[in-house]
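Hey, quick one: can you model this chain's 3D structure?
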Amino acid sequence: MAADKTRSKIFLKWMIVIGSGFLIAFSPRPDGVTSESWTLLAVFIATMVGSVVQPLSGSAVVLLGVVATVVFGALTPADALKGYSDPVVWLVLAAFFLSVGMIKTGLGRRIALHFVKLMGRRTLGVGYALVATDFVLASMIPSNGARNGGVILPIARGITETYNSRPEDGTSAKFGTFLINLLYQCDVIICATFLTGQASNLIIADLVAKNSEVKLTYLSWLTASIVPGLVSLTIVPLVIYKLFPPEIKETPEAPALAKGELHQLGPMSRHEKIMLAVLVAVVALWVTKDHLHSIDTSTSALLGISVLLAAGVVDWRDLMGEREAWSVFIWYGGLVNIATFLAASGITNVFAGSVADLTLGMAWAAALAVLLFVYFYSHYFFASITAHVLAMLLPFLAASVAVGAPASLSVLFLAYFSNLNAGLTHYGTTHAPIYFGTGYVKQSNWWTIGLLASIINIAIWVSVGLAWWKVLGWW
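Sure thing. Here's the predicted structure for all 475 residues.
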């Protein structure tokens, strides 16, 4: 009986996926749009829907979508597979490989324990210590799943269990609920702060570069985000602590626990030192690109991986065994490529024109506010930052420019909001299900705090962000 129900669910999911594609394919085609472009849109929509309902894994659905673009004549085989030669896709793959070295050597854990040792005497201090760890790692590791699932969360769970706060015995409110909420909401802010905050930011920068005159480099992204980002990282934890406080306020044992674990780790190993040197060197190459050299960011990351392999810090089996990395490679390469060809076809401009028509008569500032509001809260319908970005960023960027908003300002808002809106739900980005799966936070509580944090973040990035970007000359 259970097997029959499972098959029925899978069948229903496939009907939803196929139906969404046929719905587009047989809808009236706008003037000026070729049949190949319309077919490509139908395949893209079906692929996006499939990535959400998942009759198969997301990457498998994308691979089927890539094949469908050729079968239905939307793309040639060479064009359909072009995404897998995109340097940005290889940069994403390299990002996951760097995180393998960070976790395997224990360097990430060592950094976290040092912060807890320094700041962990109070509950809020423990939270800030782990947030500070995430902040440091995000400047180098473009995988929020690896940072949080492999480094931050294990330490957080160890501390909460030290204080007898466990979901299985009803003691979550002691410490765990507060800490999980704080870490997740702060991580989406950190994701927005760095170009390497999460892998989709690299896709955002690539899409923007290909479809506008705005260039988002590691340094320009950070320069524009650092002030509103730090303000958000200061205020959001305080609000969560004030409105949803933990029962335990003091954690005097935490620094001693961290000190004991650091003692067991001993001095930094040779592999940890090499890992740290490689990360610093790779980031230095990213920061100085176009200033001191012209080495592509993906080449810099792959060079770092090469050094780690040559030095024995990671071996080839480690990289081949990183299934999530290769899965994401298939996902990104396929979806980014289809989205790129869609943008080149002009369909996004047709959609943008329709959206812009809804704001006729408004001043550009008011029209931009409406577009950003819709873009931000539409993330309730997405289980991935990447999916949201590929489906909506370019059309909304085109619509923002069409209503008269400065392109640079529109790019900044869309780029940062693409990260901040992931805090809304327990499925908003890669590691959301990891945190939610701990059982410390009920869905109603998660969504309540997510909505509250979104309002605070929007207020900060619209006020402080706008003022800071004016000082920097972005608009």
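One thing worth noting: The longest helix spans residues 443-472.
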